[in-house]
């Protein structure tokens, strides 16, 4: 078993997370996402991974003060939503995820979207794999086009207080499955701030064709390599949890990458428990 000092992982991640080299413009933010493949918008507790906040504000908690300079990241995200420079939505760990346009076809290839999106949706619903609220949201967008959150709840007949949680759960599920995504910000509602949502296959009509010939194994391998190029090292259990992949499939993908020379297995990192996989460049 090969030992890897944890300091090397920290040094590697400080570069890939951009914690010591802050982003200064929205254009740099787009470049950052393109380099990493996918990042979180906010830091996710218990899940070290590149995110826009740390890349702008440094490695510190998200500030409560709305005037904090780090919150320029919020303005960048909102201003770029309708520019089609990346894909934004609650994809990984039910958290806001920003995905490069190069990487998003690999996520789509692993989603339950196989043929015609509307037919796929009906099949899933009829099989009991989607709740009624998801169908109401999907149908409202299909019928009306893009809708802000308030209008979407109204058109989906989910306006009551008892419907708020089921609406949010269904909307998160539809984003996770790459069926719906936020595409703009509206001044609707009491707070004057609401996302505008649209159907993924309508907003990114080319995505279906881009993903058509990507196999499941190829998609997993590509996404896993992005993951390691951001983190440097990782464990099977953490990877399965991160992507919500079955452990057996995650392990097979890891072994394929080891066989291709993209990863090294059986790595021990100082006092951290468990065996790790890591990038060959981190081993002297």
Write structural notes for this entry.
This protein has 284 residues and is of the alpha+beta class. The chain folds into two domains: 1-102 and 215-284, Arc Repressor Mutant, subunit A (Orthogonal Bundle); 117-210, Winged helix-like DNA-binding domain superfamily/Winged helix DNA-binding domain (Arc Repressor Mutant, subunit A). Helices cover 46% and strands 15% of the residues. It contains 14 helices and ten strands. The protein has helices at 6-16, 26-36, 52-57, 72-80, 104-109, 117-126, 132-144, 149-155, 164-176, 200-203, 207-211, 216-231, 236-243, 247-259, and strands at residues 2-4, 38-40, 87-92, 95-99, 147-148, 180-186, 194-199, 233-234, 264-269, 276-278. The strands form three sheets. It has a four-stranded mixed beta sheet with strand order 1-9-10-8. The radius of gyration is 20 Å and the shape is globular. The model has no long low-confidence stretch (mean pLDDT 95).
Secondary structure topology:
Layout: E1 2-4, H1 6-16, H2 26-36, E2 38-40, H3 52-57, H4 72-80, E3 87-92, E4 95-99, H5 104-109, H6 117-126, H7 132-144, E5 147-148, H8 149-155, H9 164-176, E6 180-186, E7 194-199, H10 200-203, H11 207-211, H12 216-231, E8 233-234, H13 236-243, H14 247-259, E9 264-269, E10 276-278
Parallel strand pairs: 1-9
Antiparallel strand pairs: 2-4, 3-4, 5-7, 6-7, 8-10, 9-10
């Amino acid at each position: 078993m090969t030992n890897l000092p944890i300091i090397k992982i920290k040094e590697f991640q400080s570069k890939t997370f951009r914690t010591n080299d802050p982003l200064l413009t929205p254009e740099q933010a787009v470049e950052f996402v393109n380099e990493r493949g996918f990042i979180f918008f906010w830091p996710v507790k218990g899940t070290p991974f590149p995110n826009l906040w740390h890349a702008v504000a440094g490695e510190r908690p998200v500030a409560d003060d709305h005037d904090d300079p780090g919150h320029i990241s919020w303005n960048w995200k909102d201003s770029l939503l309708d520019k089609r420079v990346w894909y934004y939505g609650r994809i990984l760990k039910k958290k806001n995820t920003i995905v490069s346009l190069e990487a998003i076809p690999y996520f789509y290839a692993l989603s339950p979207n196989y043929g015609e999106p509307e037919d796929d949706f009906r099949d899933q619903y009829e099989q009991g794999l989607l709740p009624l609220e998801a169908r109401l949201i999907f149908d409202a967008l299909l019928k009306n086009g893009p809708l802000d959150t308030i209008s979407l709840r109204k058109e989906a007949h989910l306006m009551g207080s008892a419907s708020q949680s089921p609406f949010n759960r269904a909307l998160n599920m539809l984003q996770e499955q790459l069926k719906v995504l936020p595409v703009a910000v509206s001044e609707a509602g009491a707070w004057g701030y609401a996302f505008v949502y649209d159907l993924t296959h309508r907003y990114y009509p080319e995505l279906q064709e881009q993903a058509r010939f990507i196999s499941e194994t190829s998609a997993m391998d590509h996404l896993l390599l992005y993951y390691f190029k951001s983190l440097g090292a990782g464990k099977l259990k953490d990877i399965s949890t991160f992507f919500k992949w079955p452990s057996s499939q995650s392990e097979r993908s890891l072994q394929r990458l080891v066989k291709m020379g993209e990863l090294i297995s059986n790595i021990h990192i100082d006092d951290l428990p468990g065996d790790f996989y890591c990038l060959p460049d981190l081993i002297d």
